[in-house]
Amino acid sequence: MNVGIDKLGFYTPAYYLDLVDLARARNEDPQKYLVGIGQAQQAVIPQSQDAVTMAANAASPILDATNRKQISLIIFGTESGVDNSKSGAIYLQNLLGLPRSARAFEIKQACYGATAGIQMAKEFVKNHPDQQALVVGTDVARYGLQTAGEVTQGSGAVAMTISANPRTLALSANSSVYSDDIMDFWRPLNRTEALVDGHYSNDIYQQFFLKTVHAYCEQYQCSLTDLQALTFHLPYTKLGLKALRTLLPEVSAAQQTQWLSEFEASRVYNRQVGNLYTGSLYLSLLSLLDQSEGLSAGAKVGLFSYGSGAQGEFFVGTVQPGFRDEQRRSRIEAALAQRTRLDVDQYEEWFTQWPTFNTANVTIDPAPDGAEFVFTGVVDNKRQYQRRPENAD
Question: Does the keyword field hold ATP-binding (predicted)?
Fold first, then answer.
């Protein structure tokens, strides 16, 4: 019995910053961002969105009358949690009207959280093949205005249903894992902005990639030649390319060309959105599935997940016959194309206005936000969420 990803959904806010505009405002050469970082645009989150609403907006399109009843496990992967105690999965369960009999909880390990959730969900479905799990990776990547990490900000969510006999990607039974206590990136409890040792983090990322991919091949008799494509956690897309290049000398020239071509397909969406933390690997996977011209059923895709602090994992997915979804692709491309472009002054104002952890009472007008699920404020330290009546079942 195969177990893996049946459906994928994606959401990012309806606003973005063009990185050419940011480069000029910061007196930088735009090519430093477009080529050196590998990013073109960056999602900008309004006050009416957070990790919970983005997760709900990503998951809603992949739920229907059939799989909604089958979901018995809800895992919320994030490092942008809205409460130190209450799980975002509980809010999500309520907003989406999912079964009350489902287990629902949150996982945190930097950008690795959604992968941990997928591995747990995979084992759950193996034991309960008639049931499904909903796993989301949802985050707001914030480093601060005029910081070194500013260009690698972003926000959004990827939602996945995990099932037996999946239509999109069957996941390998095994994976290779490596972890170590490393201070390359962290976010203290009283901060919404992350702290990062950028060059160190980049080096650790590449080291963990080589450790895990080589260990996987050695332990599970997988040859690099078996892999048609490699997908990466992409805090910025150039980092994945750097990691890929470290492995290129180990394969033929023809395979190098193939991997590089598939990598370009896998970063189309990420270049337009920016960093999703827990969702970045799975947005890259989604981009590969939608944008690759050479991918076909039966192809094996390597997935490298990385979470600072640090945790790395490499595993393999086998593309299934139902992986192409033209309706999903059209919906994502239209949503990205129709976003509102903010100038740098607007972006900076929105950045400073986004609600902080110290907000006890605030009312937010969600009217400008056309999303199905919105955050409307805080009353007596209790977060308030709303599903638009016109979108309700």
Answer: no
